[in-house]
């Protein structure tokens, strides 16, 4: 400083300027990092509302513009995903198809209202709920389904379901889910429409032919005196009348009226049907056992139609017991169910699924009308029913009227 004071002052100025520049450069590097850290924290907290204002520096403003554009895009995408998720959730809840989402161990984690109704599930699952613990005849079929496999199955010869197993990706993992769609109503409606058209066409043609043929036979009888020919004409007329009655029975299925309901005690209705069939059972040597609950409540039913169903069931039970040494028919009525069982000939597994099929019968002279009529009447009443032989070879027809 003593020898060259000017150079010394200049050098000090340069040092101070360097310090100022260094501090400025440091701040220019650190501030963007702070902005980035603040942005990262906001994104980590899923807060997409945090945006930065320009600071008047080109580099910083460019970085802020990029960050703000990214936040806007993330916020829009998140909103879109949430809207889609909300829509999908509402769609699942309102779906007429039963939907169950499973975890990787086959436990139910979520079920929509239709599934809860079908399988009697609790509304919310607070613990692990294994699929295998649900008591429903469709569960064994669901447990055997492979991914992306679909099947149509029929239970008790009546209830028809389409079942499907698939999966969706959840955070990189495949989550399985099950779809169960009941097709019973649609199939029955289509089936009835088809056979109804055939029956009406057959009845029209048969009735027209029988009327004309009987007229010819009646006129012919007046001109024929030979006893054998008279007898042959009488047999032909009787046969035509039986054929006409046969076709009317089929037509009655199509013309079955809707139930004319009234409040009646189920025990009383069952007792009337049993009284009608009791004499035939005694003549066949069948032991009839009844159990009616005194408190069996009244139900809104068409008495005539329900009695027709019960008589048909009892008649089938009687015929099934005819070959047994010990013949037993049991009839019980509770507040919710009618059960008619017999220890007669069991229902073969091969035909169990066809019992309620229109015009199907395993009897040599059967027409397949009885169970078909029972099905129509019980469906019109909204009653659940089943017919099957259990492991003890006892055949049971159950009607759930609640």
From TrEMBL:
Pfam families: HATPase_c (PF02518), PAS_8 (PF13188). It catalyses: ATP + protein L-histidine = ADP + protein N-phospho-L-histidine. SMART domains: HATPase_c, PAS. The chain crosses the membrane at residues 6-26. Residues 27-79 form the HAMP domain. It comes from the Bacteria. InterPro entries: HAMP_dom, HATPase_C_sf, HATPase_dom, His_kinase_dom, PAS, PAS-like_dom_sf, Sig_transdc_His_kin-like_C. One of its GO terms (molecular function) is ATP binding. PROSITE patterns: HAMP, HIS_KIN. It is found in: Membrane. This is histidine kinase. It comes from Arcicella lustrica.
């Amino acid at each position: 400083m003593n020898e060259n004071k000017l150079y010394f002052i200049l050098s000090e100025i340069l040092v101070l300027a360097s310090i100022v520049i260094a501090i400025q450069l440091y701040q220019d590097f650190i501030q963007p990092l702070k902005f980035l850290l603040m942005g990262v924290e906001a994104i980590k907290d899923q807060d997409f509302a945090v945006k930065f204002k320009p600071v008047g520096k080109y580099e910083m403003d460019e970085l802020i513009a990029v960050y703000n554009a990214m936040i806007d895009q993330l916020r829009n995408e998140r909103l879109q995903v949430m809207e889609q998720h909300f829509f999908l959730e509402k769609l699942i809840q309102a779906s007429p198809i039963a939907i169950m989402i499973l975890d990787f161990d086959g436990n139910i984690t979520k079920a929509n209202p239709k599934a809860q109704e079908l399988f009697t599930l609790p509304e919310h699952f607070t613990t692990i709920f294994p699929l295998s613990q649900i008591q429903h005849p469709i569960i064994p079929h669901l447990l055997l389904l492979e991914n992306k496999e679909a099947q149509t199955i029929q239970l008790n010869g009546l209830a028809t379901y389409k079942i499907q197993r698939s999966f969706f990706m959840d955070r990189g993992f495949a989550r399985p889910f099950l779809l169960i769609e009941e097709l019973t109503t649609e199939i029955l409606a289509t089936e009835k429409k088809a056979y109804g058209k055939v029956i009406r066409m057959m009845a029209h043609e048969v009735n027209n032919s029988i009327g004309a043929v009987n007229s010819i036979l009646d006129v012919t009888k007046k001109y024929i005196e030979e006893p054998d020919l008279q007898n042959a004409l009488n047999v032909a007329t009787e046969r035509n009348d039986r054929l006409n009655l046969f076709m009317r029975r089929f037509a009655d299925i199509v013309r079955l009226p809707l139930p004319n309901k009234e409040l009646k005690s189920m025990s009383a209705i069952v007792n009337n049907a049993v009284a009608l069939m009791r004499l035939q059972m005694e003549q066949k040597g069948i032991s009839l056992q009844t159990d009616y609950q005194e408190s069996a409540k009244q139900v809104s039913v068409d008495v005539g139609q329900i009695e027709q169903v019960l008589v048909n069931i009892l008649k089938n039970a009687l015929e099934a017991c005819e070959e047994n040494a010990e013949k037993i028919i049991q009839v019980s009525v509770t507040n919710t169910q009618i059960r008619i069982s017999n220890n007669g000939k069991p229902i073969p597994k091969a035909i169990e699924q066809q019992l309620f099929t229109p015009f199907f019968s395993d009897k040599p002279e059967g027409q397949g009308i009885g169970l078909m009529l029972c099905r129509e009447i019980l469906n019109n009443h909204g009653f659940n029913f089943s017919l099957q032989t259990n492991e003890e070879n006892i055949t049971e027809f159950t009607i759930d009227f609640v």
